Amino acid sequence: MKNVMKLVLGMAVSLPVALVAANETPTGTGIGPSTGDREFSISGTGSNDASFDEGTFGIVAEHGWYLQPNMLWGVRQSVNYASIEGESLTDDYWNGATSAYLDYQFGAEKVRPFVGGNLGLNYGDSSDDSLFSGLEGGLKFYALPSTFVQTRAEYQWFFNSADDIGSSFSDGSFEYTLGVGFNY
């Protein structure tokens, strides 16, 4: 009878510990997301010429969901402003892009590199409305258990139909961002 009581007591103590451990990140550090968590981040991007006469800046907002603690899919919206001077350029321009993305994060510590891809629509004053696809990579640094600083670089190529995808890869562009994000 004593052995049965020890077994029941051991199971009673083990069950809550197992449930808490199941909700932790893979390493049990309590840093970063768990399956089902959401993520919001806001980032900035910009550039200018040497004399600061011309420049661009933009804001990127992202909202994502964790399919697993290391796999994030979401929606990204960017708005960009450009002030460019030239012979045939007389106005400032506003552009935007909306895309869906899927990223894979490596590790479960404070510093987490990630890679991924995206697919979206580019539109605005100075661009032809077109589809784009991109490859991306970056780094998240968790300053707090659910708050991080993020940097990302992506290569995007633009196309109007499926026939253009392969031939337009070499005509792409790079985008760089730096921002802050939160898991909840």
UniProtKB/TrEMBL annotation:
Protein name, per record: Outer membrane protein beta-barrel domain-containing protein
Organism domain of life: Bacteria
Annotated signal sequence range: 1-21
InterPro entries: OMP/PagP_B-barrel
UniProt organism field: Natronospirillum operosum
Low complexity: bias regions: 26-35
Keywords assigned by UniProt, alphabetized: Signal
Keyword Signal attached: yes
Region (Disordered): 26-45
